[in-house]
Specification:
- This protein is an alpha/beta fold.
- It has two domains: 1-28 and 145-193, no CATH class; 33-131, 2-Layer Sandwich (Gyrase A, domain 2).
- 22% of the residues lie in helices and 22% in strands.
- It is built from seven helices and 13 strands.
- The protein has helices spanning 2-14, 43-46, 72-79, 122-127, 169-177, 188-191, 208-215, and strands at residues 22-26, 32-33, 40-42, 53-58, 62-67, 85-89, 108-112, 117-119, 132-133, 147-150, 160-161, 219-223, 233-235.
- InterPro entries: Alkaline_phosphatase_core_sf, Phosphodiest/P_Trfase.
């Protein structure tokens, strides 16, 4: 990925486009270390009688649990004292997760503390060794994606600004390209804090040639997996 980004920057410079093209480098999520040997929450050990849990639809940082008929509340109560585990009925999922009204979420939902994994088969989980995962509580710093931007539309000087949300990037891109955005959950007002000029003509203070570049949609987006963590939103 470093090589690809380096080639892109070199070619932009060779074609004298560095000051005319807006470049955004971002990721879709953060990452944190996990330990499948020592940080597992084994539901089969916690529910030895086997009369409450019918199946787990998924496992890992979170788990969607299908209880036996009419056993949802009992399942939550049985798991409520487990360390490093947060378990609740679907209707009690925190609003900030945006999950409680999704038909794919099962009657009982659980999520683990950072770095811990939920499983129903510890032996099988340990056989699949890996060292990093995402999908933990989205308020954790390590779950935040990074965002780096440069170009004529963005503020300069290596400034660190208040975080935006990932869903804000779509309306920001539409704004920069001067195209209408479809209905979305993002906030253009939050994203405008990244810009040197939040007015409609984002290139008016850097020359008419920049404005024309915006019009023909020369804006590059590079998505990377954040194996190297960058927790602040930085403007290059």
């Amino acid at each position: 990925m470093d090589g690809i980004l380096g080639q892109l920057l070199t070619e932009l410079d060779n074609k004298n486009l560095t000051d005319k093209v807006n470049l955004i480098v971002t990721s879709d999520h953060g990452m944190t270390a996990v330990d499948v040997e020592n940080r597992l929450i084994d539901l089969s050990e916690l529910l030895r009688n086997g009369t409450l849990l019918k199946s787990a639809v998924d496992e890992g940082p979170t788990a969607n649990l299908i209880p036996e008929p009419n056993k949802a509340k009992e399942l939550v109560e049985a798991l409520s004292s487990a360390e490093h585990l947060h378990v609740m009925l679907k209707e009690n999922i925190p609003e900030r997760f945006h999950l409680k009204n999704n038909k794919r979420v099962m009657p009982v939902f659980a999520y683990a503390d950072e770095g811990w994994l939920i499983t129903t088969n510890a032996t099988k989980r340990r056989a699949n060794k890996y060292y990093g995962d995402h999908g933990f509580d989205n308020e954790l710093v390590n779950m935040k994606p990074f965002f780096i931007a440069s170009g004529p539309a963005f503020r300069t000087g290596g400034q660190v600004v208040d975080p935006i949300q990932s869903v804000d990037i779509y309306p920001l891109i539409c704004y920069l390209l001067d195209i209408p955005a479809s209905p979305n959950n993002g906030s253009l007002e939050r994203a405008k804090t990244l810009l040197r000029n939040s007015g409609r003509d984002v290139g008016s203070d850097v020359g008419s040639d920049v404005v024309s570049v915006h019009r023909i949609s020369l804006l590059f987006i590079v998505l990377t997996f954040p194996f190297v963590y960058l927790f602040s939103y930085v403007l290059a």
